[in-house]
Amino acid sequence: MRFSIGRETILRPLQMVISVVERRQTLPVLSNLLLVIEGNRLSITATDLEVEVSVTVEVESAEEGEITVPARKFVDICRALPEEATLEATLGEDHLKLRAGRSRFSLATLAAVEFPVIEEVAARRELALSVEKLKELISGTHFCMAQQDVRYYLNGLMLELAPGHLRAVATDGHRLAVCDVEEQIPVEGIEQVIVPRKGVQELLRLLGESEGEARVVLGQSHVRVELPQIRFTSKLIDGKFPDYQRVLPQDSDKRLVIDRRELTDALVRTSILSNEKYRGIRFVLEPERITVQAHNPEKEEAEEELAATFEGEQMEIGFNVGYVLDALNAISTGEVEMQLRDSNSSCLIKAPESEACRYVVMPMRL
Amino acid sequence: MIREPLPWQTPLWGGIQHRRSKGRLPHALLLEGPPGVGKRHFAEALAASLLCRGPVEEGVACGGCRACHLLESGAHGDLHRVTLLPRESKPEQLSSQIKVDQVRELCHVMGLTAHEGGYKVALLDPAERMTVEAANSLLKTLEEPPGDVLMMLVTDQPGLLPATIRSRCQRIGFTPPPEEEGRAWLTRRLEDAERAALLLALADGAPLRALEMAESDGAANRLELLEVVESLARGAGDPVSLSAHWYRQAPLEAVGWMESWLEDMIRLHWSDRPALLRNRDVAERLKRMALGYSRRELFLLREETHRAARLLRGGSINAQLLLEDLFTAWGGEETGKGLGGG
Ligand SMILES: [Zn+2]
Q: What is the architecture, at CATH level 2, of domain A2-114?
């Protein structure tokens, strides 16, 4: 096995895979990267047995072969080389020899067969969409995922395939996010998979570095996303996502439309004096204006009045301000719409005249 | 890689495989019994059997498929081991507890789909070393584990496990095999029938424990420790420096030897040829030593040794101080400590 590659060319793929390699590994081979040369292409793969990321680049003077090398050391070496350096790698008896200019390195290796790659994902469903759309879907919902919840099926992002849409849903039990992309999807009924939190975050990062088309492959126990030069694979959560439809408020009879930026700024200011633990904010809603109020155990208070359109009878309701701010930040329109019923009912937040992304926030008693 | 159960486990194995073939394998098993009777061996073989893609007769793992290769190299993504980890401050020593983070991580991976698309197997060993918090965080997963899951909890001391854990597992009790069967097995390994018989007796009939003694420095250590105790009984030797040395060896093992000698010493004090004797090879020396104590002293000493063993097995205890007390007690009247006169 042999290849030659510019330092700049190999650095980017290395940086994409390295975050998957955990520092504390129980299995030595998991702190290694799998390097495979096929034709004139080098693929670099990292895995922690939950998430696998593989990136492919073209190399020069390639001789086929495969091997694993210590991930951190390999990355550190490449990073420390001068920018214009060319790296030449040759596999020796049990070391990978690296040469660049006058530098020589000899890295310890472990056999490629010991590297637990995820075998071909038997495609149950497949769909293609733009990287941009997939990114919007995930960035619009991922922040509502639960973290280390005993309801393990909440610690991830649910992807739903239905004939007319691809939908992402996340909830931590206090709030919920639903985003849709309209696509003609070749399914008959509705199919759901839950991608674990770690995989979601990793995928979002990779999407941020890509453009073009994304191919999503659902297997029996894995989801795979193929991006140009990048292949992402994650295990799924082995469970059933709760019926989120029941959480979406159906009978809201009051509607608030307000400038998103103004509301965000007012909430940020007011929340300085909210209870640090519960972060409660009271909304007092009246026609033509709303008031947001906060107070804390030190008896400090903050209040701000905003102009708004409110349709319905006057009411008050409390929320965790963090949840409202997350939803407001995920929406990009100038105005935002809140649908309400009473102080004990959940509120739906979305862009006016769009159902693409919907956020549900449960009220809190203040 | 361990594939087959031990010969005396055949009935247990058959029972489990039968339930498996009927699709009635429980989600959680508690493998309990004294040390050295093959609980871990059984658990390893069962894990391999469940993960293998083409088990052969009696459900035994084939040893040749991809899953078996991954198991062999320790890289199978669906076998999750939770055990005592090296201490952060002293990596050459194992922690005395299984921490909550380890169990949380286990529950997380058990909640994911299987790497190879089949069974997910967890091995918690020694299960009784879970902290209270760790045990609590395991409850939910023990109760309703997602997918095809087998969680095996291995313990020498089931009594130390919370009732909430025990009640959520199906229990399999392991006992030492009939003496003859154990001796035959050990003789095949040691190619020395006499030594096999002695070690088996020393190990309370637990064949794997006997084998471990044969393979480790255990047997040599035993004679070295016996000399130490003999000198202490004569009123020589310094308990403090001795305990510093033995604490670094294997304190639990050392206390185990002492327990076993004291049992024999009490028997030898009563009778010249007691029917039950574990330490036959050193019977004369034990007898000589036993006669240097009164019966009351021997009982007190045995009591003290039992207590030390109990505390040591419980984990977090200063082993060095404990050994020091014990060595002082062997010194008996001369040191004036431990035995309370007599
Ligand atoms: Zn096999």
A: Roll (3.10)
Do A125-246 and A254-361 have matching folds?
A: yes
Mean pLDDT of A327-354: 96
Q: What is the DSSP letter of B114?
A: P
Query: Nearest-CA residue of chain B relative to A147?
Result: B108
- The CB density around residue B190, as the number of other CB atoms within 10 Å, is 17
pLDDT tens-place string over residues A189-224: 888 999 999 999 999 999 999 999 999 999 888 999
CATH code for the structural domain at A254-361:
3.10.150.10
Looking at beta carbons, which residues of chain B come within 8 Å of A27?
A: 74-75
Sequence letter at residue B69: H
B120-124 and B149-155 strand pairing: parallel
* Domain at A125-246: CATH code: 3.10.150.10
Q: Kindly tell me if the per-residue pLDDT of B12 is higher than 70.
A: yes
Q: State the average pLDDT over residues A76-81.
A: 96
Annotated domain spans of chain B: 7-61+69-173, 177-215, 217-331
Residue B188, judged by CB atoms within 10 A of its CB (0-12, 13-18, 19+), counts as exposed
Q: What is the pLDDT of residue B338?
A: 39
Are A221 and B146 within 8 A, CB to CB?
Answer: no
Residue with tokens 């486990």: B9
Q: Do B76 and A113 touch (CB under 8 A)?
A: no
A274-310 pLDDT, tens digit per residue, is 999 899 999 999 988 899 999 999 999 999 999 999 9
Superfamily of domain B7-61+69-173: P-loop containing nucleotide triphosphate hydrolases (3.40.50.300)
CA–CA distance, B148 with A232 (Å, rounded to integer): 25
Question: Is B58 in contact with B14 (CB distance < 8 Å)?
Answer: yes
Cα separation, A258 vs A324, whole angstroms? 13
B217-331, CATH topology level: Zinc Finger, Delta Prime; domain 3 (1.20.272)
| Interface contact B108, partner A, CB < 8 A | yes
* B161 Cα to chain A: minimum distance (Å): 21
Alpha-carbon gap, residue A19 to A35, rounded angstroms: 16
Of A114, A150, A153, the CB nearest to B75: A114
Candidate ranges A19-23, B168-172, B297-301; pick with highest mean pLDDT: B168-172
Q: Is B115 on the interface with A (CB under 8 A)?
A: yes
Using the beta-carbon criterion (under 8 Å), do B107 and A152 form an inter-chain contact? yes
